[in-house]
Design a protein that fits this description.
The chain is an alpha/beta fold. Helix content is about 40%, strand content about 15%. It comes from Nonomuraea aridisoli.
Length: about 375
Amino acid sequence: MTRLPDFRLEVHFSRWEFGARHHLTASDAQTMTMTELLALADDEDRHAWETLSLGYTQTYGDPGLRRAVAAAYDHVDEDDVICFAGAEEGLYLAMQVLLGPGDHAVVVTPAYQAAETVPLSLCEVTGVALDPARDWALDLDEVRAAIRPNTRLVAVNFPNNPTGKVIDAADFARLAELCDERGVRLFSDEVYRGLERDPARTLPQAADLSPKALSLNVTSKSLGLPGLRVGWIACRDRELRSRLERAKHYTTICNSAPSEVLARVAVKARDRILARNRAIIAANLPKFEAFFAAHAGLFEWRAPDGGCVAYPRYLGADGVEAFCADLLAEAGVLLLPASVYRSELTPLPDDRFRVGIGRRDPEPALDAITAYLKGRNTP
């Protein structure tokens, strides 16, 4: 395995996620119990669950799950889908298959760290940063200028983690066209799709826009079921899908049989689950709005366009790193400071922190921050 740097987010979570009194930076929507999920199963999937044999499964993924996933696309069928143990395995193996010495990739930042560090371990990479001064806008001219003759891949993530940015659908379509014109793969991380504040702003899926593009998704984020550890890539290039399958032989080989049946239930019920999770976010947003309005001298807040994370700005003189560390130590509230999202490719703001807005009952955490600020005599 190519040596990779520490995964800053996972190192941070490994130390603090399950020990902090208030986890206010969760990246997933509110989860559900096994009983709640199985209540959504149709007769076929309930029978499959109750009679499941705990043997090996197909490397490509359970056929029923792949059919259910494909049904969410316009131009994708079952044979265009390959399942993985979470989105991270899909991302890692796609980069390994698509990139090598002598190649070049373009990565839009900020991003989930693996989208940057895995390509950097394989080839030259150019970053294109979303512009915080223009509401995290993506400049397509910058992407165009970054593409070289040996560019193999452009990686994007919308709704974006951590900013919650959703670009215009027309710009996304132009990006796909640009990649096709240049013979470049568009790798689109779409794990927050379905949680847009305005459903009319939901982007088309990359695999529908281009036969060469890859759409990455997972049960963890929008559906709020990270414990299943099931993700997938949709791509209409069957030869590439075959290469991904052969790469998977060196990692998980196949997914967990129980997880794939449960994922099938969730994907089939995605409209109901997404509606539930959007309602939780809609109910939470006024609470966050009120909190940040009450402390306007210390924070700069903007609600995300989509997804269940936001990236406020901290204005305090102590700096966001010290603020997050002291808040965790004194009040038990876990946030992700900007250093977790720093990039080796582009300058990014160092005064931001990530909050999660997709889980129920954020009030105790917000109250704990308010009490902490009062204790500091901070307005």
